[in-house]
Amino acid sequence: ERQKHIRNFSIVAHIDHGKSTLADRILELTDTVSKREMQDQLLDTMDLERERGITIKLNAVALKYHAEDGETYIFHLIDTPGHVDFSYEVSRSLAACEGAILVVDAAQGVEAQTLANVYLAIDNDLAIIPVINKIDLPSAEPEKVRKEIEDEIGLDASDAVLASAKTGIGIEEILEQVVKNVPAPDGDLDKPLKALIFDSIYDDYRGVVLSVRVFEGTVKPGDRIKLMNGGTEYEVTEVGVNSPKPLARDILMAGDVGYITGSIKDIQDTQVGDTVTSADNPTAKPLEGYRKMNPMVYSGLYPTDNAKFVDLREALEKLQLNDASLTFEPESSQALGFGFRCGFLGLLHMDVVQERLEREFNLDLITTAPSVTYRVDLVDGSEKKVENPAEMPDAATIKAINEPFVKAQIMVPNEYVGAVMELCQRKRGIFDTMDYLDDIRVNIIYHIPLSEIIFDFFDKLKSNTRGYASLDYEIEDYRPSNLVKIDILLNSEKVDVLSFIAHVDFAEQRGRDITAKLKTIIPRQNFEIPIQAAIGSKIIARTNIKAYRKDVTSKIHTGDPDRRAKLLDKQKRGKKRMKSVGVVDIPQEAFMAVLQTG
Ligand code: GDP
Ligand code: MG
After folding, report:
1. Atom of ligand 1 nearest to the CA of 54
2. Name one Pfam family in it (predicted).
3. Per the CB 3.0–4.6 Å rule, which of 197, 404, 441, 550 could disulfide with 437?
């Protein structure tokens, strides 16, 4: 029957090894999209993904494949991101599949995220089809990579497909292996509905659109469904598949990957990882959901216009539907008013969330410098978690401050080993091991405080190695460090959102660097503004922003209307990301300035 002709699979790989390009070729070869509609990285549907050339969200698409055996198969293909910040998306898509195509770059070989993602696939008991991609490159060494896959991952790679997603070599063979090696889904059609929500988006017209993998039973328009976690019930208005545009179907059955809509307006009710069942005939036990992800980096998000607080909350709720790893809680700042403290899986994730909020929800935001979660042991024996530097307790009540450390794995050509080690030492790193992977590449492992990683570590690493180093890290443990809170005062007023935590040994230098930096960022006014850095009541650095001379303003009174309009426009745009704190206007950059020091 029908199930026998379904194959559900993902593509996993290290970033840039060619997942999205391979997905393009598969869509082309199966005529899922016409030549006219075809564009590169078709499944990267967000503007942000296209601009940056990276995949952020998982994406599911249904396609038809006419196989060599004369049968027609329905493939559900899920493209996934490769960057470590988005591995949550990967683990969710894998739970909806029976197989995974593992793409390895023939020139780069097995890399950190190749391993991480393949382990996720193995954990989910998926059939794995190794593909060695980019064999068209002159530097390709497919046989060496085949051996790496066997030695480093422990997979049989004797049948690994040699492919080029660029030129189209090997694509057909990959699809044939999917038919032969990925098991067809099983699951009883007659049992009560049991479907896993692996993603969801909010659509202004259709309400919440649930992406589901049906494991048992069937679902069709008119059915009453129940979301098991919250117990809420809805009537299904539409079911269908993405091909890649939404395509309504009469029914979804066990084994299918598709979507369900049911004019679900209540965003809080729908959680990724939840099970959808029939309201009238519910299944006894929900599916195993997902491991909850703990945010690692926090920052404050504030609307530039205080009146937009409610809009920001709505936007965060909608975005969270589509990004289950985002967390947020209201917070308030003396300087910035009402906003949210948001938790992210990493810096790239933070960047992406801010951009999506601004683009998809039309908001202007001020983000504060990211910080990590500190665990503070207090003198009274209790422990306090501090996600916001401004909330660091009074020094007199603190026994010890513990900070998260990461195990950082840096791969680099041997000529840069010295530069990398020097940087790691400067960032309070603790050396672990160094291994030669071959004649050229060295793998260096350091234990480094996460807070140092989020302060410009990656940029420095890239610039010190002419872009050759790759960095991968995982959170390891909390370790006690000698840390202090540094406050920033503008015009003698403490600006709470500019407070940050630093190691004692670097505190004074950081204080001097940031006051100097702020001096260049904060616009002059018609009075002098002192900038000070302080630890407790002790001022550790100070400088002044000079008042501007009166005649500077007169330059704006230009006669040329064109130029005048341009100037006004420029002023307006400049204003957007600016916040008045007391009598001082602070631009967005100032809140991030601390990241560029140290
Ligand atoms: P992803 O990050 O794994 O999704 O990788 P992409 O599909 O975005 O590809 C990363 C880069 O590698 C892009 O510039 C592609 O054009 C290029 N690329 C992908 N496959 C091949 C291939 O088979 N040969 C060559 N030469 N380049 C490829
Ligand atoms: Mg991609």
Report:
1. 2
2. EFG_C
3. 441
